[in-house]
Amino acid sequence: MEITSEDKKELETVLSIVINQIPSYANMVNSARDNWDVNSDDCIFGMVYHSFVAKSTEYLKNKLTDIHQQSDVESTFEIMNSVSDVFNSKVAEIKQTIVSTSNS
What we know:
Blueprint lengths: L4 H16 L1 H11 L7 H27 L6 H17 L1 H13 L1
Helix pairs in contact: 1-3, 1-4, 2-3, 3-4, 3-5
């Protein structure tokens, strides 16, 4: 499966949506902090990553289904590679948003 520029824009949109959920993740983590000893910034980062990977791979796998293409090992690796590339391009923004949210 070749990732088009349209697909990449869609993945970036999904990531923006997930980044906007960081305050909700922070509230969730901070409310559980009394019961567990967690590094909240790392936990929130993991939540952002997990949410983005789940939503973006669902989008790409649905696209494969829509174009009647079988999902195989190669296409799965291409999907994960594309998802990782988009996520990695925004790591600094994600970390800054987490820090900003934690300091407020």
